[in-house]
């Protein structure tokens, strides 16, 4: 008989890769817009994967079917939510206004089971320490609080100050790990001879010497980071 | 083409492979030669017990245990460990019942082994 460790190893690999594929299938929503329902789903799916991995007293297959079924259910819900706004409201809930013009909306708070201390804590996370400064506070479906301050308490923007806006900060990665990123080179509108010329001017003879090179679109400059660092160790005087 | 392979073909191939591994028990418990035919040796043991040929029954029991030991590593990834353990216990008890010439108890153990055998991968 093979050792239990080996069986767990194989089943864990099956569970890990399956979970990875299913998580990719579910998309980024699972991570970036974690609603309470998604959170519970994540725990359930994780729990089934754990059983698939180490519960040797039952076959791997029923756990795998459970994992697949839950994933399909989530996909179905995601599809429904995409297709119908009514389904979206039903599954994800609706954002709730909890502060309006500095006043706490007690009824909305009670329905959302959101306490005043939680509200104040979320406000402090947003650097708001005074309720009267808030024009609107909205409790989002993922449990986060969005806050709109009254105009007099908002930070001044470049537009408010009527200043000229600086150029954007877009950079394209042209070389990574000694390999040219062809797609970005095309996007930058530059050609290979230009890139080679730039490298040559920095004393770089071969691409393999370059760890990373990024091209800044607005300033038309190339940032190069070589494998052979000039400063091998940090100067203790500077730390 | 490469992204198509990575995004679709590789994951689907892996999932299909996993499904086959997890359901391979019924296929892999079938004999690949004459030495690993569990059902054949189980029938042999049963016949010898019916005829009260206890010495031969004990020899056939050894063959049966050897056949089972060959099957177990093949099916371990797809069947319940508890089911394997139950068959191991049945085989150990069957040996003792043969040694003490207990016809009824030995037949009952054989019946239970058959039941567990059928339940593997179910």
Q: Could you list some keywords that capture this structure?
A:
heterodimer, A: 239 residues, CRO Repressor, 4-stranded antiparallel β-sheet, 8 strands, disordered C terminus, B: 122 residues, mainly alpha, 6 helices, 79% helix, 0% strand, elongated
Helix/strand layout:
The complex is a heterodimer of chains A (239) and B (122).
Chain A: H1 4-26, H2 29-32, H3 36-54, H4 60-83, H5 85-92, E1 96-100, E2 103-104, H6 106-112, H7 116-125, E3 134-139, E4 145-149, H8 158-161, E5 171-176, E6 179-180, H9 182-188, H10 192-201, E7 210-216, E8 221-226
Antiparallel strand pairs in A: 1-2, 1-3, 3-4, 5-6, 5-7, 7-8
Chain B: H1 2-22, H2 25-28, H3 38-50, H4 54-75, H5 81-99, H6 103-119
Helix pairs in contact in B: 3-4, 3-6, 4-5, 5-6
Describe this structure in words.
The complex is a heterodimer of chains A (239) and B (122). Chain A has 239 residues and is an alpha+beta fold. Chain A folds into three domains: 4-89; 96-153, bsu07140 like domains (CRO Repressor), CATH 3.30.240; 171-226, bsu07140 like domains (CRO Repressor, 2-Layer Sandwich). Chain A has ten helices and eight strands. Chain A has helices at residues 4-26, 29-32, 36-54, 60-83, 85-92, 106-112, 116-125, 158-161, 182-188, 192-201; strands spanning 96-100, 103-104, 134-139, 145-149, 171-176, 179-180, 210-216, 221-226. The radius of gyration of chain A is 27 Å and the shape is flat. Mean pLDDT of chain A is 85; it is low at 234-239. Chain B is mainly alpha-helical and 122 residues long. Chain B is built from six helices and no strands. Chain B has helices at 2-22, 25-28, 38-50, 54-75, 81-99, 103-119. The longest helix of chain B has 22 residues, at 54-75. Chain B is elongated. The termini of chain B are far apart.
